[in-house]
Specification:
- The chain is mostly helical and about 100 residues long.
- It is about 80% helix and about 0% strand.
- It has 3 helices and no strands.
- The protein has helices at about 5-25, 30-55, 55-85.
- The chain starts with a helix and ends in a 13-residue tail after the last helix.
- It is found in: Membrane.
- It is an enzyme of class 1 (oxidoreductase).
- One of its GO terms (biological process) is ATP synthesis coupled electron transport.
- Its EC number is 1.6.5.11.
Length: about 100
């Protein structure tokens, strides 16, 4: 059996990579991929603790998180398409001109 610390380390590494991607990238598609990495890190934690405790609660919450991620991608792709249509680029720093 694999110790839970390995799952925690994997989850922490994925989460840190996601945070790094959000903080350093300007591309909106990279933002979406970084958020997906962070959600997958949370899913790994939920499933690992669920397996350790012997109940299915974490796995059910993980399924809800996957549904949330799918909805987030659908809305995010719509926003990216509008951003590309208005600015012909997916650089999020150019979207500041859409303010008042």
């Amino acid at each position: 059996m694999v110790p839970i610390q390995y799952y925690m380390m994997l989850s922490a590494a994925l989460f840190c990579i996601g945070v790094f991607g959000i903080l350093t990238r300007r591309n909106a598609l990279m933002f979406l991929m970084s958020v997906e990495l962070m959600l997958n890190a949370a899913n790994i934690n939920l499933v690992a603790f669920s397996f350790q405790n012997g109940n299915l609660t974490g796995q059910v919450f993980s399924l809800f998180t996957m549904a949330l991620a799918a909805a987030e991608v659908a809305v995010g792709i719509g926003i990216i398409l509008v951003l590309y249509r208005n600015f012909s680029d997916v650089d999020v720093t150019k979207a500041t001109t859409m303010r008042w």
